[in-house]
Amino acid sequence: MLPAATDTTNILLVKLIELQFNETEPPSILSTGPQSTDVQIRWVNGLWFSALACSLSTALISMLAKQWLQAYLPNVSGSPRHRARQRQTRFMHLEAWRVPAIINALPLLLHVALLLFFAGLVVLLWSVDLAISLATWIIVLFAYAFYFASIAVPLFYPDCPYQHPVTDRLRIWLSPDRTSPPPLLEEPINTTYDARTCAATFEDAIDATALAWLFNKSTDQAVVSSALRAIAGLPRDFSALRILRDAGALPLIEHGFQSCFHKDTTVDLQWHLVDPESAQLYCRAWMKLTRGTAEQWPFDIVEPLWMLQDLNTHPDVAAIASCAVALSSFDSHMSQWELLAYLARCTAGETQLSETTQCCILDSISECFVRWEMPLAVIEDTATRAVPILLRMFYLTEDLPNSRVRSAAALALHIVTCGGAIDLGFYMSEDTRRKQYCELMIEALSAIVTTPARFGVQDGLLDIVSAELARLASPIVAQSERFPQRLRTVARSSLSTLYADGRIAQGTVPDSILADVLHLLFPPAYLTQPQQSVFVTTLVETLETSSHPGITNWAVRLLEVLLSRCSLAVLQAFVESNGINAVVRAAKAGVVDSRRLQIDSLRTLCAFIASATQEYKGTTTSHPTLKTHIDTLFQSDFFDTLCSIVASRRWWLFEVSGHWLPAIVELCRIRPNERVWQPVFKTFKEFADRNVGEEGYSETLSHLEVIRKVSKEELEESGSISSSEVSTEYSSNK
Predict the structure, then answer these.
(1) Carries keyword Cell wall biogenesis/degradation (predicted)?
(2) In which element (H, E) is residue 262 found?
(3) Which is more confident, 300 or 9?
(4) Rounded to whole angstroms, how far apart are CA atoms 181 and 420?
(5) Nearest CA to 646 among 609, 681, 684?
């Protein structure tokens, strides 16, 4: 397109010749052939330079793409799972940023460059020779007709070998709802997410898409089988199962399960097991993908599943097959009972099942109970079978507090005993199960304690219930804000029943746990009068046999509440179980160990005195039992201990005048002739003199004046001491 020096020279020579001949036109020998116009020259140059630009751009982008793919090569270390996640993450980013589309577009650039070059060639030859131009144009036309035909034909004939990236894209654009072609020609379902919009990689989605990529892309059947069996090992709370289902994993798993058997079609048409371990993994993978759905086990492979269920040589394999059968037949209770039979044999030591298999059985039982629609009688019968087995599992795993079996058994026990609607999806996470373990067990065990006969629980199993429920007292006491009041009340009521029955006592549970149990029982739940008597007797026995400070403190406090305004039967139970001496010993131990224990012990004995005197005054005739109770009190070391405690320490005067002296005054009114009143009056008078002017001082003097008058009158009337001696004694004390 630029002016050439030879062209200028040629033009000048032509002009010179024209002048020499003096003619307006040059001779015929000077005439030239066809000349290209400026428009044609521009078209040719434009088309060819565009072709050149496309070719060079293809080379440049190819080099860049090669560098991108070089970074995709695995160059990380770590576990196989970590490396797989790294590879899948990079693959998902390549997909999100359209790297495969860019690479697929590179040949199109070369095709366009060739088209532009041919077009420029045709334009160039058009002004030179029409015949040659037409021949070239026809050849180019046929070539590109074949090119476009190879793109269009696969749209109508998917099995045509003329595959092209443009064809796949056109197929998606023209028929987005078109049924997917066979797996060999199928594009993998888009299960990725836009990596550019994600702040962090979702690990479950990465794992799912990696597995889907493997079993959809790999042509090695061993790799496909490994990817499908790996679904069995996914965590229970795996959240990306939908990706695997959408990727077509379920029919592949069913086909893989069928490949673990050989069907003899020559003689007996029987299925023969080839690979039991792989069949187990396929079963577990199928259960994971169908859990919570209405999917049923395919009818055409039910027979090999039943055969696997009867495999006695591989108990784990047979148990997993039984789980698949149970989850496919919610309308039959026999399959659920079969699962209970496996657990029963496991707890009895007749068979050995792995922890994974036990958890799978327990989860299947939970799902069956939640989704069951059976008659109430069948559900009750199943609960009676299930609860004893689950309790034995807790007994066998009591030394494994972090076992996954315990958390799964806790959920199953709660569902069986408490019933009601429950969201199993909330309890898929192992962390959630462990956090909710105490709440689930408290409600379940309390339901068993309330109606043990309903669940087939007898003496030995009740001991297991007692031990498990007692262990839960410690977290309730230590983390009281975590548990609602309703749950604390339920636990207190059940523990009260078990403690009164003697199933929770020193020796049956550790001392620290027993102390927490008594702490939780304070204040005691509502008890009937017979229950109160039994409860008091049990508390006194605990007080006499234990030296643990926590047990002693809470036993004394509970006795104080139970003896306050109690009935004659409770008083009798307290005295006959030697409760007076037991509490007096606790008060003496408080001299060394605890000032609080001294106060609680004296309050307990004063509560006993108040209730006894109230009962005594309420009877119209002399009651021999009450007289015996009061005699026992005077025969004990109570008054000596009382005087020594009051004299040994500085007490809050209001405690003395508000809790101790009122009961003692009432006792003095009933038994004024006892000689203990003189040292009692003297001790309390000296104590009052040390606390002149404090709160309760005047009340203390009033109580002491009553003791002085009542006992003085009785002594004078009995004649055991002269009136002058009485006046001298009390005057000196005063």
Answers:
(1) no
(2) strand 261-263
(3) 300
(4) 46
(5) 684
Calculate the alpha carbon distances from 428 to 61, 408, 422, 432 in Å: 48, 10, 12, 8
Residue 588 pLDDT exceeds 90: no
| C-alpha span between 316 and 314 (Å, rounded) | 6
- Per-range mean pLDDT, top range of 163-177, 340-354, 703-717: 340-354
pLDDT surpassing 50 at residue 729: no
- Measured at the CA of 605, the angle between CA 602 and CA 606, to 5 degrees, comes to 80
Nearest residue to 539 via CA among 506, 568, 569: 506
Sign of CA dihedral 50, 52, 58, 64: negative
Cis bond leading into 401, ω under 30°?
A: no
Among 70-74, 112-116, 693-697, where is mean pLDDT lowest? 70-74
Q: What does each C-alpha distance from 430 to 148, 370, 435, 621 come to in angstroms? A: 58, 19, 9, 67
Angle between helix axes 38-72 and 80-96 (nearest 10 degrees) is: 160
User: Is the CB of residue 425 less than 8 Å from the CB of residue 459?
Assistant: no
The token pair at 514 is 């027993």
Please state, for a pLDDT cut of 90, what percent of the chain lies above it.
40
Question: What's the distance, CA 48 to chain centroid?
Answer: 68
Whether 542 shows a pLDDT value over 80: the answer reads yes
Model confidence pLDDT, tens digit, residues 385-410: 999 999 999 999 988 888 899 999 99
Q: What is the rounded distance in angstroms from the CA atom of residue 648 to the CA atom of residue 185?
A: 97
- Percent of the chain's residues with pLDDT above 70: 88
Distances from the Cα of 439 to the Cα of 411, 446, 490, 717, angstroms: 10, 11, 11, 66
The two tokens of residue 318 are: 């047979």
Q: If residue 83 lies in a helix (H) or strand (E), which one and from where to where?
A: helix 80-96
Compute the distance between CA of residue 85 and CA of residue 486 in angstroms, rounded to an integer.
46
Query: What is the domain partition of the chain in residue ranges?
Result: 1-32, 33-176, 201-301
